[in-house]
Amino acid sequence: IVQLYVPLNWFGSYYRAIQKNFVDMENMFDLLKEDQEVIDAPGAGPIVVKRGTVEFNNVSFGYLPEKLILKNVTFTVPSGKTIALVGPSGSGKSTIIRLLFRFYDVETGNILVDGQNIKTVTQDSLRSAIGVVPQDTVLFNNSIRYNIKYGRLTATDADIIEAARGADIHDKILTFVDAYDTQVGERGLRLSGGEKQRVAIARTLLKAPQIVLLDEATSALDTQTERNIQESLNRMCANRTTIIVAHRLSTIIHADEILVLQDGEIMERGKHEHLIGQDGIYASMWRQQLDKDTNLISSLENSATH
Ligand code: ATP
């Protein structure tokens, strides 16, 4: 009986995970490709999240036993504060996010949310306490209304409109042929990258989680769009514990703490000004980005004058 129970239960939780979290995680984790290695502890109860404090204590982790990807990572995000993860590609930023979502269990150390070890609570309850805005949001072939409502299936039309307003996409939706009933997705109206991101923000506003994970888009949107989206993001993150995987440093100048990762280790940490003052990895990343932006601006100016 025991032998039979384990695989069935495993399959059950895998299936539920796909159903409930597929869209939340979208391209960020590509759940279907990940091995589902994690199962709920026997007798695990739901997590209770009131303040949304996140703690990583001496966390080490590797996908394969022979290679550690995160080494002794320790940080705390106090309730309502924002932490930003920066560092070169492959440094382990997304791995931190995946561990908090408990797609994998840590090798050593622990991860606490409001003081509860995430290993000891149900995955469903953990994931419903966390909102995710991925780099690239996948839409259902369904109405724009349903696509927003997915954040909380019990939401009323008034809730949906309020969320759309908060994400600054309501007015845009009213310009669509069938307004909120307009079909979107692969087989319907194709939305722009910025619009899809707003749908993800609206979903998260509806879900109203205490913790938000934000994987910043790498592909640059135009500056005005970006500035407008930033305002919606700020609204969404206000008073929520937020972890940002940042690709453009300009968006994290006001983060409460910036962690600079390299090869899975936190090499520098602190606020923007502090890190600039240290003249280390972060400062040189900052200079590089400024150079890039300056080049971009001058090439735009050149193309405008010629
Ligand atoms: P990027 O900025 O490019 O998204 P990142 O800092 O988010 O990079 P991670 O995605 O956390 O980096 O990856 C850290 C390391 O772990 C990389 O070397 C990557 O190749 C490795 N890695 C990621 N996922 C897996 C996996 N499922 N199996 C084995 N190794 C993996």
TrEMBL record:
Q: Where in the cell is it found?
A: Cell membrane; Early endosome membrane; Endoplasmic reticulum membrane; Endosome membrane
Give the highest taxon in the source lineage: Eukaryota
Query: Coiled-coil region(s) at which residues?
Result: none
Transmembrane portions of the chain: 1-15
Residue span, ABC transporter domain: 54-288
What interactions and quaternary structure are annotated? Homodimer.
Q: Which family does it belong to?
A: Belongs to the ABC transporter superfamily. ABCB family. Heavy Metal importer (TC 3.A.1.210) subfamily.
Q: What is this protein called?
A: ATP-binding cassette sub-family B member 6
Per the UniProt record, the source organism is: Cryptolaemus montrouzieri
Q: Which residues of the full protein are shown?
A: 553 to 858 of 859
